[in-house]
Amino acid sequence: MAFATVWNYCVPLTIITVACLVRTAHCQAVQAENVTVLEGGTAQISCRLQNYDGSIVVIQNPRRQTLFFNGTRALKDDRFQMVLFTPRLVRIELTNVSVFDEGGYFCQLYTDATHHQVATLSVLVPPETPTVDVKQEAVEGGEVELTCVSPRSKPAATLRWMRNGREIPGVVSQQDNGKTFSVSSTIRIPVERKDNGAALSCEAFHPALGTQRRVRHYRLDVFFAPTVRIVPPSGILREGDSLSLTCSVSGNPLPRNIQWSKINDTLPERAEISGPTFQISRLSQSHNGTYLCQAQNNFGRAADHYTLLVYDPGAVVETHSAVPYAVIGGVLALLVFTVICVLIVTIWCSVRQKGSYLTHEASGLDEHGEVQEAFLNGNDASQGKKEYLL
Q: What are the boundaries of the signal sequence (predicted)?
């Protein structure tokens, strides 16, 4: 607590300071303590006395209305109570303090001359949890403007926007309402579909809150056109089977009505529709075609299609049974072709070998004829050989 200046009313200090020192017992003084309290709280206003000799003590409010006269209530305000009156300390208590109680409270001591001291009462007004105002709808591809408002505080609160642990700088404005202040902080951020549901917060800081803060949480509400996807069944659909399709729809706002139709035809009589689900029991080839799921909201429309092809079980069986026979026929044809090739090669090799044998046989007959002719002519072999060599 801060103490105001001590007033010494014995005599003017510049003239009779020595006299006060000599007659200390007759020099009286009063001290007042400054007080700071939260609005709605309780304030204790104290006046400390020195060398009190029974003189009149008066306590007045900031409007100079007398609250107590020597311990006796003078103003009819039950919020003020005298809690202590001694030769050393006079204390009053004010409950349910408001900003209009703020100001200087006078501790007056009446002797030959009237002197007073002022105890200043300061009232802090902590901010309430701030509010968030949205100027216009947040639409995919556009911007959203958000304003955080703290309508009443004293002194003015400090506002801060946060997203994912990071501060978003805002444009701050402040208005003086007389005893209190209103503060606002405005941000503009671009939004996409993925931002729908993103968490933001506005935090208010104030000396009256200490290390605490008042936080307003806000989730982005981003509007966007719907998307549609048909979830198809698994496997092959045959005659007699059942078809079940689910139309998965997203959008903001979520489309309420989902429309099923068949392109260039009407829906089958046995078709059953329950919201996003489309079913047909006992399928036949007459159900073949393209089915369409459509959805829309105020920001657009979307559609997806599914082409149904019902197979004949008999045709499927024949197709599957024909495959092994085709493979076997191909293998047999390959074997026959291989055998024919082997036969052709064998015959060709045999014919060629036989021709070579006949050629050697003819050459041997020629040599035998020459020898026989030489013998008949009476020439010896050596001569024939010699003549042959010449």
A: 1-27
Q: How far is it, in rounded angstroms, from Cα 175 to Cα 196?
A: 33
The string of pLDDT tens digits covering residues 249-273 is 999 999 988 999 999 999 998 899 9
Least confident of 248-257, 323-332, 363-372: 363-372
- CATH code of 225-308, in short, is 2.60.40.10
- For 116-130, 140-154, 302-316, which range has the lowest pLDDT when averaged over its residues? 302-316
Question: Per the CATH hierarchy, to which homologous superfamily does domain 131-222 belong?
Answer: Immunoglobulins (2.60.40.10)
| pLDDT reported for residue 112 | 67
Is the Cα torsion angle 205, 207, 213, 216 positive or negative in sign?
Answer: negative
- Evaluate whether 241 touches 287 at the Cβ level (below 8 Å): no
Q: Rounded to an integer, what distance in angstroms lies between the CA atom of residue 185 and that of residue 15?
A: 59
The reply to whether omega before 190 is within 30° of 0 (cis) is no
Give the strand pairing for 29-32 and 114-124. unpaired
pTM score, whole prediction: 0.64
